[in-house]
Design a protein that fits this description.
The protein is an alpha+beta fold. The protein is built from five helices and 18 strands.
Length: about 300
């Protein structure tokens, strides 16, 4: 059944900013995304054939707003019915909101830890031109694999993990447990969950709250050199690193982390493993990295 998971991939994310243009400037100059601005102040950024993977909205409090999860129409109807029968409060997207997301329909709700999710179907591709990065040589591993992945705060860890698996149909890839970051703190637990996409995980759930509303958001480039050049741009622009270059154990990704505008932690990676879910056994890990990834979190 795992090759028939109802969620196909992470379709888009919504981010709030006091001034969305700041994120547009950052996205183009640092990540190599392609930005456009709407008349209502929103900024949309492309990375592939999708009309937008990042939707940046005016907000009084900067931070992460929601993850948008892609479904086929039949799967969408089935998931909505299942959520409604379970008593999960859902809000149906208006015609205007659907147009903003370039989808035929969507609903939004909240998981047990308070993270906003959106389920959608019928998203169109960008009809005008192919994606063209403003930075020469930048391309992303996206399209049918989706934007990348998000790791979300889940203080209600067991209930939130159960929700995404039993209600939305994600499946476990890896359960990672790490020692406490400081003496007296609880151990750190991250559950990595996969969708139909062959990415090792499209969603991670971390057992603690974070102020920005997101632990990190990952984008994957098509070469190690592209990642290294992005790291140079991050350092030159003065964005604080939160983890040095390294390779993860569970998904094999070579990446680094830094803090983007709005307090959004970004992972930029390459060489992530892809899996055939019809022949996969979830793993249990106590080590996060093969090498590197020296964490150096910025002060909140």
């Amino acid at each position: 059944m795992t090759n028939q998971l109802p969620i196909s991939s992470l379709g888009y994310v919504r981010i709030g900013m006091n001034e969305p243009q700041e994120w547009a400037d950052f996205g183009e100059a640092i990540l190599g995304l392609q930005a456009s601005r709407a008349t209502d102040g929103r900024v949309q950024l492309r990375m592939d054939s999708a009309p937008a993977r990042f939707i940046v909205e005016p907000a009084t409090r900067p931070g992460f707003i929601a993850a948008g999860w892609a479904c086929e129409h039949d799967d969408f109807d089935r998931l909505v019915g299942q959520l409604e029968r379970a008593g999960i409060a859902l809000t149906e997207g208006t015609m205007e909101a659907c147009e903003q997301r370039s989808v035929q329909g969507f609903v939004s709700g909240f998981d047990p830890s308070g993270n906003c999710f959106e389920l959608y179907h019928g998203r169109s591709q960008a009809a005008d031109t192919a994606f063209e990065s403003p930075i020469e040589g930048v391309r992303f591993i996206a399209d049918e694999l989706g934007l990348g992945h998000v790791v979300l705060p889940a203080p209600e860890h067991t209930a939130t993990s159960d929700f995404y698996q039993s209600m939305l149909g994600f499946a476990m890839s890896d359960a990672l447990t790490l020692p406490p970051p400081v003496e007296g703190a609880p151990e750190m637990i991250v559950y990595f969950l996969h969708a139909r996409s062959p990415r090792h995980h499209s969603l991670g759930l971390f057992n603690a709250p974070v102020p920005s509303g997101i632990v990190h958001l990952m984008v994957e480039m098509t070469s190690l050199d592209a990642v290294g050049c992005c790291l140079d741009r991050v350092n030159a622009a003065g964005y604080p690193l939160t983890a040095t270059l390294g390779r993860h154990l569970n998904d094999g990704m070579v990446s680094f982390y830094f803090l983007a505008p709005g307090g959004i932690p970004i992972e930029v990676g390459y060489d992530g493993k892809q899996f055939d879910w019809s022949d996969f056994e979830p793993t249990v890990s106590t080590v996060g990295d093969i090498w590197g990834h020296e964490y150096q979190f910025a002060d909140e």
